[in-house]
Design brief:
This protein is mainly α and 189 residues long. The chain is 58% helix and 3% strand. Among the domains are: 3-85, no CATH class; 153-184, no CATH class. It has eight helices and two strands, in the order αααββααααα. Strand 1 (90-92) and strand 2 (95-97) form a beta hairpin. The longest helix has 28 residues, at 31-58. The chain is flat. It starts with a helix and ends with a helix.
Length: 189
């Protein structure tokens, strides 16, 4: 059984268990029945959180706040991305088809022929030139040694001062001004 079916079966069983625990608590509102109901609720909420996380990943949302339960939005985002990524109609031999298996087969055939070698088997290893014949420059031993070793604080400071202001040099979102202001604290790191 695949994961999707297992997850649906687990969700179904937990919903049944939740309903039974709820009915038991309604008929006999004891602390024991309340605890059982809360345990089932926690399991069900955990399952829904995992489901929402996978939806967020498949929707390719680049942002998501923890605790945000905006699942309808992410469902619609995932659906829109699915429609964008897949070919729903294709003209094959003058006839428009919507059968996904025919479309996939036609795409497979197209790309197989596109990337198939156009040379005969005896010509595949014969190139008009060799990369070994090209004049590719190499580094001297002195230049190689300059590139080795630890980066010094002076080198980092020099590079930091070369950055233009109002720019973000990395993907952490911190501007150059931040690094320049706190260089005394973060420079050694």
């Amino acid at each position: 059984m695949n994961k999707s079916k297992q997850r649906k079966e687990k969700e179904k069983l937990l919903n049944i268990e939740h309903h039974e625990a709820y009915v038991s608590f309604q008929n006999n509102p004891s602390q024991e029945n309340l605890t059982a109901l809360n345990v089932v609720k926690e399991k069900l909420e955990k399952l829904y959180e995992e489901k929402i996380e996978s939806i967020i990943i498949r929707s390719r949302a680049r942002w998501h706040e923890h605790g945000e339960k905006n699942s309808k939005y992410f469902f619609n985002l995932e659906k829109r991305n699915h429609v964008k990524r897949h070919t729903r109609k294709l003209r094959l031999s003058g006839v428009i088809t919507t059968d996904p298996f025919e479309i996939l087969d036609a795409e497979k055939t197209f790309y197989e022929s596109l990337y198939k070698s156009r040379q005969g088997p005896s010509q595949q290893n014969e190139f008009p030139f060799s990369y070994e014949d090209l004049p590719i420059p190499t580094l001297s031993e002195e230049c190689k040694q300059l590139g080795e070793g630890n980066i010094s604080l002076e080198e980092c400071t020099k590079v930091l001062n070369s950055f233009p202001l109002n720019k973000v040099p990395g993907n952490d979102g911190l501007p150059v001004e931040f690094y320049k202001t706190f260089w005394g604290s973060v420079g050694q790191l």
